[in-house]
Write a structure and sequence with these properties.
It comes from Cohnella abietis. This is Beta-galactosidase trimerisation domain-containing protein. The protein has about 675 residues and is α/β, with parallel strands linked by helices. Among the domains are: about 365-565, Rossmann fold; about 580-665, Immunoglobulin-like (Sandwich), CATH 2.60.40. The protein has an 8-stranded parallel beta barrel, surrounded by 4 helices. The chain has an 8-stranded mixed sheet with strand order 14-15-16-23-22-21-18-19. Strands 13-25-26-32-28-29 form a 6-stranded antiparallel sheet, with no helix packed on it. Helix 6 runs parallel beside helix 8 (about 240-245) and helix 10 packs parallel to helix 11 (about 335-355). The longest helix is centred in the N-terminal third of the chain and has 29 residues, at about 185-215. The mean pLDDT is about 95. The chain binds zinc ion (ZN). Zinc ion binds near residues 98, 115, 155, 157 and 160.
Amino acid sequence: MKLSFRIIPARFTKDTQFNELLAFLLEHREAVGEISLFTEYWHHGYYPLEQFEPFCEVVTKRIATLRENGFSNVGVNMLCTLGHFDEACNWLPSLPYQAATDHNGIESKSCFCPNSPQFMEYIKRKYELLAQTKPDFIWVDDDVRMHSHGVEYTCFCPICIDKFNHTNGTNIDRQLLVEQLNQPDGAHYREQWIEQNTTVVEQLLEHIAASVHRVDDQIELGFMTVSQVYASYSGPDYERWLRALKATKARPGGGFYDDREPLSLIQKILETSRQTVSFPREIRDLQYEFENFPFQRLSKSIHFGLLECTAALATGLNGIAFDLLKQEEGTLEDYHDWMIGIQKMKPMWSAMAENAGDYVGRGLYPAFSAQFDAKRKVQQEGNWFKPDNGDVLKVYSLSELGIPLSMDANHACGTILTGKMAEGFTTEELRSMLAGGLLIDGRSLQVLWERGLGHLCGVSIRETYDNGVYEQFTDEGFNGRHSGERRDARIAFWKDLAYVVEPLNPEVRIISRLLNFVGEDLGPTFTLFENELGGRVAVHGYAPWKHIHSGVKREQLMKVCDWLTKGILPVIIRKLGKVVPLIQSTPDGSGYSLMLINATMDPTGEFDVEVRTSHTHWSRLAEDGVYTPLTNGRVKNEKDVTIITVDSIGPWEYIILSTQMESERL
Ligand SMILES: [Zn+2]
């Protein structure tokens, strides 16, 4: 398990600052497993080499001193390869080579085009200089991407347009290419363009690996990725990219900078998990990025921050890269409590990390294709440069109800499609989702009909409404004692759309109907159907991801999710509460690990959790890293499931349960 600290230059370039840093790190020696020195303070891409060279001499000296003081794992983090965004460009030297250029021909002020020969020579030399500092490793930061470089969509400079023409045998200029990309029938161009983005990044990473390894082939390389949901324009093929870099380390990332909205934690954990699942299996150094940018002590509470790190480790990562310590010159006195907290968690985190790579996530898979931007439809008069990729994130509210989500499509027990996400998949991929368990919203139903697969959902769209409607549970046996219950999500307030569907088959079960505010029945809005492929499809047409936080709606949704997986939803919490489950197991089910997070300010009270496995020996992992077996009476077997009685979990606290026993540890 790696506990890595990323250190900004202001903290180590001057002797006084470095000495304070060294004293701080030595004082908390036990909490520090890896040190990574940043190359830049700023996100501006250009660092004149005649200035970078003396900077690297300082880095060489600092690495040597850190090693002399007993830190064995010391490396560097190239913050800027292309440049992240426009910052300090008025004060720092202007880009001397082709700048990243957007589809309107506007140039970034701080970020390079990755394709000019001058840049390739410059970046080769920059990495060579860094490799000469004798680091154990070099991290390549997440600015190696084709989006968000001060200008949003890159790179449409003349060099890149030439490259496109050369690769695809076309003869087209920027304006004409952009016109094609915006055409409804421009799918072929969009796929070619995204493929160019994937390839450009791949070639740059290959070039970086070669530059570093020419100096020293023992230097390990690591790559920092971002959520595919936001990086889809870059054509994120993390398997190709990490292999091109010959990476042995990876850090999935995502913005989550303060705890003002604590539930954003769940989104970050799931989005980093989505990235991790797509990495090549051989990469075993997987570091979660803990970040409170711009690194101020009070932006995240320590309690919450440690919970965040623990949750990350519960999804299969085995290290934490702390982007935590003060970025400016000045005192580190604010951070001692943090380091004490980290050290306290180390035994538990080490125990959790032992299983990293051996376990897979279990639950329902919120589907997103990394090829979404290449494949999504553009409407007539449309604009491809206006994506709506974020729809998939709305699904994560289900986990607040206790419904387990997994980013591992191959081991998930069912799939969830939302918004236009279905457009990112091939018809065969969609058919295979429809042959399993599938939960969809109204917009997804529309896409599936457009793709010729609508009949497999058992319903078509009859009508949509944008205000003044609510749902009522039907007296279908499925709803049990809750028939007649109502839910009003006030969709007009959120500019949402409600769908009434038309059953096409007598077998379709209707579990909710849509009513208007004067009580008239508008038709079915939540249906269940078992199709000819043997798949079970639930179509939820009314506010499926929002304002679902009542006991009766929770129970209905939980039952639906369990029904569509044919009773193998891996975990069911038998009590009303906001308990988020993160469940993993070995692929063959021989071992399980379950983290339950109480995501409210109320204690949960004692509750039962049902785990769909016949394991009877369970233990609880504590902060001291010890697995304590659950005593008799706390674990029961009912048919093929295990019922575990859990003591009350406090506000924003958690419990980790495992089938692992202390005696099995190495
Ligand atoms: Zn370019």
